[in-house]
Amino acid sequence: MGLCGSKSTVPNADPRKDWERGVPVYVNVYDLQARGGNGAPVTVNGAMGLGAYHSGVQVFNAEFSFGGDPTGKCSAQTGIFSVNPKSALPSSQFHKQHLVGHLPAGTLQQQVFALVNKMKPDWLMSSYHLVKRNCNHFSEAFLWALDEEFNIKPATVQREAAIAEEKRTGKPATIPKPKIPERTLFLPAYINRAARFGSYMAPNAVIRALSRNAPTAEVPDDTAGPSRPPPGTTGSGGAGSSNANSGTTRPSGTTGQSAEELRKQHPLPNDRSKLEHMSARELRAATVAHGVDTTGCIEKGDYVDAILRHHDAVGTPAGGTL
Hints:
Elements (H helix, E strand, L loop, with lengths): L22 E9 L12 H4 L5 E7 L2 E5 L13 E4 L10 E10 L5 H11 L15 H35 L23 H9 L2 H8 L47 H7 L6 H5 L3 H11 L9 H15 L8
Antiparallel strand pairs: 1-2, 1-5, 2-3, 3-4
Helix pairs in contact: 2-3, 8-9
C-alpha cells in the first residue's frame, strides 16, 4: 500500500496488440479509498495528488505484489504473493491498468517466476512499512529487476561482444552495437507520491494506525491463483525452485486455536479434483494447518501438487482426508 518520471501508456483496446512488441508488462492500480465505484466522490488527499493506492505488476497472467502481516505471526515468511490480474482487491477499488513496457518476445513465464523466487528472501512480511517499504516500493523494485534481467543485461552482453569483436579484428563488428542500454520500465509517479510525502511529514502514530488497514500478503477468498498464459503467447506456467520461505500465511481468525482444531477447521483431502475446487486461500490455509512444505509454490496448481506430495509422504489413502 502507498499513501502511494514515468512514460506510462494505456493498454490497447485489443490486448493482442500489446504482444506485438514482446511480452507486455502492466502495473495494475487499486484505489484504497474507493468505496462506491467510479462514481464515488474524489477524496481531499486524492484531489491534491496524494491518493492512497495499492499496485501489482502483471506479467503474463499473474499479478505480483507485496504485503505485510499485521498479526506478526508470519513475519519471517515472504510477503510476495501473486493473484489473477486485477483481483487483488474488490473490483470496486480497481483504478487503472498501465502498460509500462515490454520484455523480449522469447521471455518464458517460468523465467519470470524464477526471478520472483530470487527476490523472496529480500521481501519478508516483517520488512513491510506503510510509507517506507510498501507494495508500491516492491512494484518499483520488481520492474527494475525485470528490466535488468531481461532488457539491460542481454543488450549489455551483445554490446560488449560487438566491441570485443571490433578490437580483435580491427573491422566493424558483424554484431550491430546497440545503444548503451537504459532502463525502460517505470512505475507511474503518482502511485507512491503520498508515501514519499508521508515518510517526511506523517507522525509515526498515524502511520501505525493506517497500517492496520493495509493489504496483507494473504490471497483473497475469491482468487483462484494465476492462470496460464493465453493460447498463442510465449511461456508456460510453473514455479522455479527456491530455498526461500513460501508465501503461505497463518489462516485468518485462528488466534488461540490448537493445532488439532486448526486441522479440523481446514481439512486436507487426498483428491486432486476436490483440491482444485478449493479456493487458493483455502488451500494455503490448509497447508499451514497441516504443515505442508510449500517452498517455491506460486500458482494454485503448485499448492495442489505440494498437498498431494504430502499425502504420499504420510501415507494417506486415496480419497482420504487429513
